[in-house]
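Dear V.,

Thank you for sending over the compound details. I've combined the ligand you provided, 2-oxoglutaric acid, with the protein sequence from our construct and run the structure prediction for the complex. I'm sharing the raw inputs here so there's no ambiguity about protonation or stereochemistry in the SMILES, which I know was a concern on your side last time.
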Amino acid sequence: MLTEEQVASFRENGYLNYGLVLTPEQTAELRDALARCKAGSSPQAAESNRNISWGKEKGFVVTQIVNMFQAEEAFRRHLYNEKIVQMVAQLIGTDTVRVWHDQMQEKPALVGGPTTWHQDHPYWPIIQPADLVSAWVALEDADEANGCMSMVTGSHKWGPKNGGTIGTITDESDPHVWGPDYKPEWIPEGESVKVVSQPVKAGGVVFHHCLTWHGAPVNRTERPRPAIAVHYMPGWTRYEKEPGREHLVEHHITVQPGEELKGDFFPTVMENGVVLKP
Ligand SMILES: O=C(O)CCC(=O)C(=O)O
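Below is the predicted structure of the protein with 2-oxoglutaric acid bound, written out as structure tokens.
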């Protein structure tokens, strides 16, 4: 459980670096499951597995695997991690929590690409309102050198900037220069941009609000940087059709526009304040 101070800090800043949440055994089990998934030997397929990096033509790689939980039981169990789900419920302020989707992002050793600055919810216009909280868990030690996350403090209060990224790569010849290069008109008057990097040990969690600006630098180290993000939504989250906007997991939605989003592919992990079993 989180303290009142931790919840207040999240509401103020839009993120919370909680630190260790998994045991070394749980972390190792997820790493093994990831290795099987990458080798194509998982019992089932994930939703997608692709290189989403900026600068692919320059050799950068960020392997994104969406819905690891469809491929591997260990990742399905991870969705229901009691400590994480309880903390998410506190941060959102809800007694019903469901999973929108999960995603692995691995920045491989030496060639791991940058994560350019973005907010999550503009990628998810088909679910409303923007009350989701993500739990980002590192499966290896993550620091600035191998591409840990960075957050812009308080930016979840700045409103959504549809489809855009707040920063760009400012110097393509230098892979370490990954931003920020802000669009000044997106920063509300009186606010300033304060970037705070979020190093965590393997098995540690960083929470962020779905409107918080975040990004991560390249990985030029010899250490990979795998991390599993689970995007959790409160029970009141609705499916809304957005003409012209499709989402990768939309084909799994069985409810009607305007209804609460639930179903087999959007597991309910807490109901009436009780964390459920997988
Ligand atoms: O793992 C990363 O570098 C980016 C993850 C991310 O953007 C997210 O979880 O919302």
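A first observation: Helices lie at 4-13, 24-39, 68-71, 73-79, 82-92.

Warm regards,
I. M.
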